[in-house]
Structures are given as C-alpha cells and as structure tokens.
Amino acid sequence: MKILKSLALIIFTLGAAKSFAQKSDLGAWYMYFGNNKISKKLNFHNEIQYRNFDGIGDLEQLLIRTGIGYDLTENNNNVLLGYGFILSQPYVNGEKKENIEHRIFQQYITKQKFGRFYLQHRYRLEERFLQDDFRMRFRYMLGLNIPINNKEMLPKTFYGSVYNEIFLNLNSPTFDRNRVYGALGYVINKNLRIEAGYMNQIQENKNRGQVQIGFYNNIPFNKN
C-alpha cells in the first residue's frame, strides 16, 4: 500500500504543478466507476468524473452516468441501458461558458482472456440532448489489462492498463475524437482497484493530455 500511496502522490503532484502553468493544455480527471451486481444477471452501473483544465479547481466538465445492465452469459457479454448528465464549462473566446447535456446510451461489453492478457471490447451508442442541438454518436473502446507481479488479477496485484477509444458521429463531421490511455493499476481486493495514468485525446486536430486517477468498485449488492 505504501507503493500505491506514493504513486497516487506523484500523479497528484504532477497535476498540481501543472495548475500553475495557465497556458498548459494538461488537464486532470478524477474518476469513480461502480459496477455492482443486483442479481446473478443484473448489474447497476454508477459513475462520476470530475474533469479539470488544470490540476484542480478550474472545472472543465462534471459527468454523472448510471444504468442497468444484463449479462447474456455468466459474468460476461453485458448489455446496458443508461443515462448521463454532463455539465461542461468550456472557454469560448477567453470567457467561460456553461453547457448542460442529457445523454441516453446503450452499450455492449464483452471480455476475453488470453493467458495473462485481459481484453475488453466496449461498443456504445449515445443519443445526446444538447441545449440547442441533438446528436448521435458511436464509440468503440479496446482495453487491455496485464498483471505484473501475479499471473492473475488477484488482490495485491499491480497491473498495466491501456486502451484506445474512437468516437464517431452519426452526422457530419464523422470523426469526433480518439483517446489513447496508459496507466499503472493496483488490485486492492477482489472488488476494489485503483489506477493512475495518462490519456491523450485528439479532437479537432488538437492533442490534449490528461492525468487520470480512477477508482473502481465492484462490491455486489446481492448477498451471493
């Protein structure tokens, strides 16, 4: 746990240091993801992301997502219907604006394991109700987790995590953005883990980096 605390401290310090450089494009995202079993087949998804232009304090976006999923096979092939509330505060011509978006989404997640490689495919369709517009978007993410000090994702295991996600609009322009992510994670126990890493996003021909801290909670609600 001392190593984990040191890792988190390094990432937080990096984000805080960047907050003093107002012209820097490096932001920071602090994220919580919950995926909790309601029954053998049903799960409750809950998620909060606090995104900043700098280390902390200059809000870029607050994202809250929730949904109900169903496993088509045992602990895999999950289909989910969800809702998202997104509060954005972008800078427009040097002035900060506020936008609110309501989002309905449908997704399918399938997982595979090859040796010590844990693969995940996520397909997501979003209906985006913006303040002055309605748009639809498709997203595909390919993620990979690789345990380092164990062959399995067991408690007290460090692991590497990478993913690539592409966003495509169903209307023009087709390409929306692409995200590439790399992180070091730690399995606290069978239901809890934490990751600290870096994500680069390409949007409108611009690259922007994000330091990320993510906490994952899979504690089941059912007694079994």
From TrEMBL:
Name the InterPro entries for this protein.
DUF2490 (IPR019619)
Annotated signal peptide: 1-21
Organism domain of life: Bacteria
- Asked if Signal is a keyword of the record, the answer is yes
Listed A to Z, the keywords are:
Signal
Q: What is this protein called?
A: Intein C-terminal splicing domain-containing protein
State the organism of origin. Chryseobacterium glaciei
